[in-house]
TrEMBL record:
Name under which the protein is recorded: SDR family NAD(P)-dependent oxidoreductase
Keyword terms: Oxidoreductase
Species of the source: Streptomyces olivaceus
Transmembrane segments: none
Domain annotation Ketoreductase: ranges: 39-219
Length: 284
């Protein structure tokens, strides 16, 4: 839902930096035995917003080793220090960055039990006014980078016979939002990917959770260049989404809405699409 401006991309390859590279050594206990009590969570988009809130919630819960990634190394380091996590700053839209992040995480922790894909950008405005680079940015960050990272992390989970992938979607992807055509399309792709992947992984021990938040009170709206001005739905704090992620992981839920009443417009759209479209055309 945000104006997002592309960062320059280097032809030299992935621009990946690990602010806490001194901590990137294996944490497996001496003798090669693996700690089965502590699980590893890899969280993307962790420098702010929902990703940062998820990191803090998992740290509060305990029992997690955290590896955090985001594109802003300064803010990412701050969150990592707050959560006693290892930080790996990376632009996951760059070729090979997903593999480097996965290799770094495995070298640091030996495993990935949970992937929370929270990185996302958007753009607000008329589709015909949207610059081509902004279209690419929204699709690259929300869809392509997410799918590549899941593809990189997933084989280890399948071999272990356990793990969970949490994909942070959006209500925009479930019902479509005026003036957010590309963002809505990108998040719809994430939701459909979550469903299809869940079917494919049945019987492997690996679960897929799709988290569908509505409006969340994060810097997301500031970055899009268009503040949120509607009276409803009211923004919820990112901590509420983070708690929903924690509960979904603990209970193995496939899909959760934050707040839960957001299921209603999705059900109306599915049961009475004509009525829903008339209402949406009037109220946006």
């Amino acid at each position: 839902m945000a104006h997002a401006f592309s960062r320059p991309r280097s032809a030299a390859g992935p621009q990946v930096v690990a602010p806490d590279a001194d901590r990137a050594r294996s944490r497996r206990p001496p003798g090669g035995t693996r700690d089965t009590r502590t699980r590893t969570a890899l969280v993307t988009g962790a420098s702010s917003g929902i990703g940062a809130a998820v990191a803090r919630r998992l740290e509060e819960e305990g029992g997690w080793r955290l590896v955090l990634t985001g594109r802003d190394p300064v803010r990412l380091r701050e969150v990592a220090q707050d959560t006693r996590a290892t930080a790996f700053a990376a632009d996951l839209t760059l070729p090979g960055a997903d593999r480097q992040l996965t290799d770094f995480t495995l070298a640091t922790t030996g495993r990935v039990d949970l992937l929370v894909a929270g990185a996302g950008v958007g753009w607000a405005g008329k589709f015909l006014d949207m610059p081509p680079h902004a279209v690419d940015e929204v699709l690259d960050v929300n869809v392509l980078a997410t799918l590549r990272l899941v593809r990189s992390v997933l084989p280890g989970m399948v071999r272990a016979g356990s793990g969970r992938v949490v994909l942070i979607g959006s209500l925009a992807g479930s019902v479509a939002v005026r003036d957010e055509a590309v963002y809505s399309a990108a998040k719809a792709a994430v939701g459909t990917f979550a469903d299809a992947l869940r079917y494919e992984l049945r019987g492997t021990g690996v679960g897929v959770t799709h988290v569908v938040p509505g409006v969340v009170d994060t810097p997301f709206f500031e970055r899009r260049g268009a503040p949120y001005q509607r009276s409803r739905p009211r923004p919820v704090p990112p901590e509420r989404v983070a708690e929903a992620v924690r509960v979904a992981v603990a209970r193995g839920r496939d899909e959760v809405y934050v707040p839960s009443w957001l299921r209603l417009p999705c059900r109306v759209r599915g049961a009475a699409p004509g009525l829903y479209r008339r209402l949406a055309a009037r109220f946006g």
